[in-house]
């Protein structure tokens, strides 16, 4: 069984290795040990403060604990203490990166046996600000028997959800129904993506007016010919 400090060191090592593999440059503070974050990840001109954590059950602790000669101490994280958790999940040997905003939440590595929505680890494999909760239906769980149906393939998201920037561009290039077909999901799923990201969509009737305008241009060109 790992000692608490050993767990912390292992988590930091796993996070650093994973970030380097993801082509981040990693910097570790050496002047002070009292910073509220463990390391800094740098990529594409941006720095991100990372708090490395080891978690057997996927819980994102929203406070730090330590002991000294004066006893045990506890301090809740402030919203600006760091940017992302680097959470090492030993049961699957993976690292996930939820924003500090997810503090206090839990991230699952196995499907649940209850109808309660949950966060799934594969939705946090890179620095993640926004994630939608999953449901047991996506994993073929039979709530009558509380077992996973062996004939139902436990699946993760069928497609990689586009980034906020990509989705923000796509919604002005084509209707949500077309975007859904392109990604193999329903238009309702695209609506949820927009809501989760806070992406503004074209107003009602936009695509009809655009199609009508295009038709008028084509007719004008045809008449001139």
Automatic annotation (TrEMBL):
Species, as recorded: Nostoc punctiforme (strain ATCC 29133 / PCC 73102)
Name of the protein in its database record: PD(D/E)XK endonuclease domain-containing protein
GO MF term list: nucleic acid binding
Every PD(D/E)XK endonuclease domain range: 2-103
Xref: Gene3D superfamilies: 3.40.1350.10
């Amino acid at each position: 069984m790992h000692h608490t400090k050993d767990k912390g060191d292992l988590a930091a090592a796993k996070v650093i290795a994973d970030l380097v593999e993801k082509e981040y440059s990693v910097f570790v503070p050496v002047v002070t040990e009292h910073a509220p974050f463990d390391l800094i990840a740098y990529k594409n001109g941006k720095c991100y403060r990372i708090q490395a954590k080891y978690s057997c059950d996927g819980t994102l602790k929203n406070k730090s604990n330590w002991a000294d000669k004066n006893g045990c101490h506890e301090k809740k994280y402030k919203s600006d203490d760091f940017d992302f958790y680097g959470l090492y999940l030993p049961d699957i040997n993976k690292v996930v990166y939820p924003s500090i905003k997810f503090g206090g939440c839990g991230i699952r590595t196995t499907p649940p046996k209850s109808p309660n929505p949950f966060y799934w680890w594969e939705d946090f494999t890179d620095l993640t600000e926004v994630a939608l909760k999953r449901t047991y239906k996506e994993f073929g769980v039979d709530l009558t028997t509380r077992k996973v149906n062996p004939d139902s393939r436990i699946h993760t998201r069928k497609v990689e959800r586009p980034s906020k920037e990509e989705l923000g561009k796509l919604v002005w290039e084509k209707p949500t129904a077309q975007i859904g077909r392109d990604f193999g999901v329903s238009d309702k799923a695209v609506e949820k993506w927009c809501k989760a990201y806070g992406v503004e969509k074209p107003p009602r009737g936009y695509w009809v007016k655009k199609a009508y305008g295009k038709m008028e241009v084509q007719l004008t060109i045809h008449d001139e010919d």
